[in-house]
Amino acid sequence: MSVTGLIKKPVRAIIGKVQRTLSEREVRNLYRAKTMPAHEYLKANPMPELTEAQRKEIDLFWSQYGIRILDYSWFRWYYGVTGIEDPRFIPQDVYSYIIWPYHDNEEFCLAWKDKNLFERFVPGIPFPKNYIRRIHGRFFDGDGNYLPDENTVIMVLSHVGRVIVKDAWDSGEGRGVTKYALNNEADIRKLLTDWNHSDNYLVQELIQQNRVFSQFNESSVNIMRINTWKYGEEVHVFCPTLRIGAEGSTTDICYIDGVEITQTCAITMDGHFGDNIVNQHGRVQITSETVELPDAVIPKWEEVVKLAMQGHKMLDHFDIVGWDFTVTDDERVVCIEYNIKRPGTVFYQHVNGPFFGEYTEQVLEFLKDKKNQVKYIPEWMRL
């Protein structure tokens, strides 16, 4: 039976029963939005169909949490790319609709994701040096001192050289990030004109990354995505990954003709690079055949892990956080940003296997409670 056929009956049951009434078309659109990327990927990169035994194993695992897997496309994608057959892979629809809404408080995301306020929310975490902050249309210097006019802003920026400008709210996935060389007043005025449309942005130092990271791509700041999960009083690190930008890009993720371009490489828990580099299409390169220092120990690795765990303890509204760290050429640890609004899962599973790994069952533990199944599992996905 087709996915549409499977969805029809549960969708009809939803209409008129849920508090936030959705039309059949709206429900289908919501579901398709989270399954379409897998369909598009498989269309461009055909992978073997799952066997009946593989589907049964997947159903058996997820049914214990009250979840009906309507579409196996995500599993085909992950099984095909990684060669790992594990029902604990996290489909994006399950993550977005069920797991993330329970573990993170969406109502607080908009405020807590404001990059101008990162240092207030997680003091002690080393973020890039800020030269200018624009907050609610007003200008401040990096220390938060009010700047009354444009001439004062120009004065602050007159000796900083190369900078990165980011939207304070919407620079995720490399969007809203621009590099400038401020050699004179005209360059500064151009920056201010270019960003006049935004009332909330930052002007930051341009990071010079350590050779261990730049060997993967010179133009971009290649970051370590350190995923953390808070369970009670404990913070666990899982699925650490190096994210690598495309040649010529400034950030570790960019978009070309609407397609997300990035590469990932696993990082072991003792700070070494994984064996493979995998791009967004699942194409694999061997790390030792691609870079000069494949066996290098990541500098300051233990400090990076410690800072991610320390920072997460201050983010009480969010159980799942994605931290983006790098290390500079003078071995200074810098947290580029933290991510709380549905931190990504897809490309990290290319090189690590199941996203939550050994913590998967604990992450899903809340669904052992039937009340939580009713509350968090959309009816069309619920057994």
Written description of the protein model:
By secondary structure, this protein is of the alpha+beta class. It folds into three domains: 3-104 and 362-381, no CATH class; 107-116 and 209-341, no CATH class; 129-205, Dna Ligase, domain 1 (2-Layer Sandwich). Helix content is 34%, strand content 22%. The chain is built from 15 helices and 15 strands. The protein has helices at 3-14, 24-44, 52-63, 73-82, 92-103, 109-112, 118-121, 150-157, 185-194, 211-214, 287-290, 301-312, 346-352, 360-363, 370-376; strands at 130-135, 138-141, 146-147, 161-167, 177-182, 201-205, 223-231, 234-244, 254-256, 259-261, 263-267, 273-279, 284-286, 320-327, 333-339. It has a seven-stranded antiparallel beta sheet, with helices on both faces. A six-stranded antiparallel beta sheet has the order 3-2-1-6-4-5. A two-stranded antiparallel sheet has the order 9-10. A hairpin with a 4-residue loop joins strand 2 and strand 3 (146-147). The longest helix is centred in the N-terminal third of the chain and has 21 residues, at 24-44. The protein is globular, with a radius of gyration of 22 Å. The two termini are 17 Å apart.
Gist of the model:
The chain is an alpha+beta fold. It is 34% helix and 22% strand. It has 15 helices and 15 strands.
